[in-house]
Amino acid sequence: MKNKVDIAIIGGGIIGLYTAYELAKRGVENIAIYEKKYTGSGSTFRCGTGIRQQFGDGANIKMMKRSVEKWSNIGEEINFPQLKMEKTGYLFLLYSEEEVDRYKKNVALQNSHGVPSRIITPEEAREIVSGLDISEVIAASWNPTDGKADPFLAVHGLVRVLKKMGVEINEYTEVKEIKVKDGAVEGVKTDKGKVKADIVLNAANAWAKILNEKLGVKIPIEPYKHQGIVTEPLKIGEIKPMVVSFRHGGAYLTQESNGGVIGGIALKYGPTWDITPTYDFMREVAKNFSRIIPALKYITIIRQWGGYYAETPDHNAAIGKIEEIEGYYLAAGFSGHGFMLAPAVAEGMADLITKGSSTLPLEFYDPYRFQRGELREQAIQMG
Amino acid sequence: MRLEEHPVIDFTRKRGKKVTIYFEGKPIEAYEGEPIAEALHAAGVRVLNFTPKGRPRGLFCAIGKCSSCLMKVNGIPNVRTCITLVEDGMKVERQHGLEPLPRDYKPPKWKDAEKIEADIIIIGGGPAGLMAGVKAAEHGAKVALLDENPILGGQLVKQTHKFFGKREQFAGVRGVKIAEIIAEEAKKKGVDIHLETSAIGIFPNGEGKLVTAVKKNKKLMEFYGKAVIVATGAMEKMIPFENNDLPGVYGAGAIQTLMNTYGIQPGKRVLIVGAGNVGVILAYQLLQAGVEVVAVVEAMPKVGAYFVHAAKIRRLGIPIYTRHTILKAEGKEKVERAVIAQLDDNWKPIPGTEKSYDVDIIALAVGLRPSIELLHQAGAQAIYVRELSGYVVRHDDRLETTIRGIFVAGDSSGIEEATTAMLEGKLAGIAAALFVGKANVKNAMEEMEKVRKDLDEFRSGPFGQRTRIGEEKVMIK
């Protein structure tokens, strides 16, 4: 482990890894990542794999549009073609006129940003996913350019390229404290020794606030327990898109590349550091999934796990420069959207660090908006 | 083919009512009370499904643990046919790779789970679980027991040989009979028994525990208790060799299930891999069922089984080849031949020593590993202990794990055999009754001490050495 680096990144999840990649691509040479367990272990490997542009506000739509562009090319770019975004779409099932009205507005906004989403009929929805029960569905919001990617391949591919680019990745190395001197970062103190650094990026998501609080930086990010399940594998292609139903407990589900159905519902606990899986979640998933796709009642859940949504009050991340401390940056509090947003956030953050600004709408995620009482409209969140 | 004559068991009396099931549209005769895969085997069906790569797969463990027997039953994919009982008119189909969703668009009617309450919930109705039930009930606790198999007794139900040891530990009694005796005892003591019920999770529930389960693949059940005893047994190990997934490569236990539990002849000619007690007892049982055993091969330089067992099969003319291993299975869609070879001192096959046997069954008796999945899910601390054959959970001298109120007994606490499983069951049963506040403290302490002595005695001597070393490693002091 080097004792001096230019940029120290705290957190070896998708945000930390992707930002390191974007920085290295811009010629930054001396980068190190500190991860308290193994890369991807925090929230990335526990995520629902979805990538979507169907948000209800311009900033998230813009960011996600950029993310999808980048997700589409990253595998080729890092010479790891196994990693590719599958553009299998997101299908929001709508059950009331009120829901349809809201999604029509969202679709108009999404279209104005060049996202080809549209409102479709229940019959069209069933053409996309043949197992759907559409007896109560009145419409659906559909975007074919949304999709999913494999978080294991994403982390593996990024780690591989980062090592080639000379980025130091320190696993099982926990940052205990960020060292500050005369109002500027001096480095990080880890459980394996101190490291001097001019710039520190806190990409620890759920754990970000622990380090912030030690510096007196108050940004509201709290860990909430969310869970996921995966079923026994089915024939590939049975449930291509991410299917979402707010009518059914905020359920989302899709088929992963091995054929298992992966997903969850919006049953959260917290704030808490406990991530033990609960029976209530398993039962409610079984109940709600089989109401969306009735044949799922025959399919066995084989794994269930817990993880954190690092939540902010408006379910949008806190991204930007920490004003009080020179050289300190934050990209955390992703509220369940870190995996999908990562490429755009990484690009924005790398530009912010190397050029001082980004063309992406990072100001939307201004960490000080909470302090100022300028909460954003809550991001569309599931799970 | 079904066994009509057997020196130990009268299967013609044991079989249930005749029913018809349909395999790939073809009618097949079966008997009520027998599982699908076993009925298919009796009708000569060896290939139960094809993997996504097109490889044929058949039965392997026959106790619901390995998923090698998954088939489509009445349109529902991935059914464990080795523990799902036949029903008249049932439609059974082979799976080819991954199955699509059933074409069913009818939203399900959700029924709330059936709730069972007791002081102690026991998962597993084998020798350990049953004995735990008997003892816990005897000491005043209300007990509910669940097991995913259709019959009580665990692996005892296929042990046609007589046991050794002390009289009070059923010496001289056949395993099948022991299963009947303790199952009867458990019922008499009021243990609430639920068969064909798979536990799917152990969760904390306030001060108590909740065990969730699924009955007959469809009904959700909730078992509420203050303590849980996990006695989920073990599963057969596999060894690597070419075509080890070919139908006809069976775990030793699966062969016993076929012939000793359901009276179905497993094959015509068998090669056995492994000369521990399981392997040589299996050889004798195969002879009883009229099956030819061509040889027993053992990679170790000496036979692991008790001398009496090994001597018996040698007398009957079955060769035991030590320092030999299986190289490959051959055959189209099912086992037709087995190739073995001698090993050198570095465990490498010696070229030129290959021997080929025409067999239709290769029996693997290469050991077991503890089934600790539920304990792991519940969060009990597990460690790898070679002497106990795999990952086992840490426990104290009352068999309580690192989670208060969760106990472990039998093979799921480390591989031994049925007598120690029963003793551990007794210990865990009394300890759990004490934990839930039902047992008389003095009586319980005294009896636990006695059981511990019996366990120590049984584990003394050279055959118990591995267990003693293993126990030392898992014990929380």
Q: What can you see in these coordinates?
A:
Chain A has 383 residues and is an alpha/beta fold. Chain A contains 8 helices and 18 strands. The relative contact order of chain A is 0.19. The mean pLDDT of chain A is 96. By secondary structure, chain B is an alpha/beta fold. Chain B has 3 domains: 11-96, 2Fe-2S iron-sulphur cluster binding domain, sarcosine oxidase, alpha subunit, N-terminal domain (Ubiquitin-like (UB roll)); 111-235 and 369-474, FAD/NAD(P)-binding domain; 249-368, 3-Layer(bba) Sandwich (FAD/NAD(P)-binding domain). Helices cover 25% and strands 27% of the residues of chain B. Chain B has helices spanning 11-14, 36-42, 127-138, 175-188, 252-261, 277-288, 307-315, 373-378, 418-435, 441-459, 465-474; strands spanning 18-23, 26-31, 49-50, 56-57, 70-73, 76-80, 91-93, 95-96, 114-117, 120-123, 143-146, 192-194, 197-205, 208-215, 219-225, 227-230, 234-236, 249-251, 269-273, 292-298, 320-322, 324-330, 337-342, 355-358, 361-364, 368-370, 382-385, 390-393, 406-408. In chain B, a hairpin with a 5-residue loop joins strand 3 (49-50) and strand 4 (56-57). Chain B is globular, with a radius of gyration of 22 Å. The chains are: A alpha/beta (383), B alpha/beta (477). The A-B interface holds A 131, 133, 135, 232-236, 238-239, 259, 276, 278-279, 282-283, 286-287, 290-291, 293-300 and B 76-78, 97-108, 110, 113, 200-201, 203, 210, 212, 220, 379.
- How many beta strands in the DSSP annotation of chain A? 18
Helix-and-strand structural type of chain A? alpha/beta
Q: Classify the helix fraction of chain A into a percent range.
A: 25-40%
The largest pleated sheet of chain A is described as: 8 strands, mixed
Evaluate the radius of gyration of chain B. 22 Å
Average the pLDDT over all residues of chain A and give the rounded result: 96
The tally of domains of chain B stands at: 3
